[in-house]
C-alpha cells in the first residue's frame, strides 16, 4: 500500500486547521451574541415570532457595548471586544438594567442630576454659541428628531445622543457619531426613505445622506429651496415623498427627482388637528403618522386626521417610563 505523499498530508492538515478556525469563529460570534443578550444590549422583540436578530441590531448592540467599554466602536466582533466580554463581571456595571428596563448612563449607575459640563470655548466660536453635551434622559428630555430606520428600528435623538425605542422601552443612549460617522449632534430632523434605502439628517443649512451607517460621497450638501433649521421630517408611503416641516408650513420632496414643491402649504390644510412648530415626526411601522411636540405626541388616522384621545405622553407611551 502506498503511503500518502507529504503534499497530500500537508493539504489535509491545512484543511483541518481551516475547519477548526471556521468553527472557532462561529463559536466566538455565538459567544458574543449570548453576552449581548445576557447583559441587556440585545432584547428579543415582542412583535416578531422569530428570535433571530438583524445585522443592524447586532451592530448597534456591539457599538453600544464597545462605547461603554472604551473600545473602538467598530460594530464588529473583534478580538478586543471578545476579550473585554470575557473579563470577570464582578463589580462591573452595564448601561442597561434588564430587570427594571430603565436606561442608565454609559458607565454610570443612575441618571445624572448634576449640572452638565459645558464644552470649552473654541477660538472660532463664542462660548455662548456652544451647547453643553449631556447624556439625555429619554423620560424627560424633548426629542430633537425621531425616525423609523432600516429594518423597522426606531431611533430617537436628543443633543449629541441617539437611542433605540423598542417594545421594552429604550436602549442605552450613545453618541450619534458612534453610529453615523461624521454626523453632528443637535439635529433638526431625521428621516429614512424605504423607497431608496437612504437616511437623511438635517441641521441648519445642510443635509447629510447615509446608506446604513456610511455617509454617501459628496455629503453633507447645502439645503436649497427650503428654509434652514427645519422642525421635522417624515416619509409618507402613500405618495413616496418626504415631508419637511417648519413652523406652520410643510414642503414635499421627491428625492429621486430632487424636486421640491416650491410653494409651502399650511400644515393644517393636510394634517387636520395636528400641531405646528413640531419637535419631530415620523410614519411608523403601523403606517400611522405621528407628530411630537414638547412632552406629547399626536397620532393621525389614514385620512391624516388626529385620532380621538390624543395628544398623549411621549415618555409613558414611547419611552415606557
TrEMBL record:
Cited Pfam families: Hemopexin, PG_binding_1
The keyword Signal is annotated on this UniProt entry: yes
Residues carrying Phosphotyrosine: 219
SUPFAM superfamilies: Hemopexin-like domain (SSF50923), PGBD-like (SSF47090)
Keywords carried by this UniProt record: Calcium, Disulfide bond, Hydrolase, Metal-binding, Metalloprotease, Protease, Repeat, Signal
Metal-binding recorded as keyword: yes
A GO MF term: zinc ion binding
Region (Disordered): 113-133
Binding sites annotated in the UniProt record for Ca(2+) 5: 146, 190, 233
Gene3D superfamilies on file: Hemopexin-like domain, PGBD-like superfamily/PGBD
Cofactor(s) demanded: Ca(2+)
Transmembrane portions of the chain: none
Sequence ranges assigned to domain Peptidoglycan binding-like in this UniProt record: 36-85
Cofactor: how bound: Can bind about 5 Ca(2+) ions per subunit.
Positions of Ca(2+) 4 binding: 144, 188
GO cellular component terms given for this protein: extracellular space
Ranges for the Hemopexin repeats: 136-183, 184-230, 275-321
Signal sequence region: 1-21
GO biological process, one term: extracellular matrix organization
PANTHER family named in the record: MATRIX METALLOPROTEINASE, MATRIX METALLOPROTEINASE-19
Record-given protein name: Peptidoglycan binding-like domain-containing protein
Species this protein is from: Micrurus lemniscatus lemniscatus
Lineage per the UniProt record: Eukaryota, Metazoa, Chordata, Craniata, Vertebrata
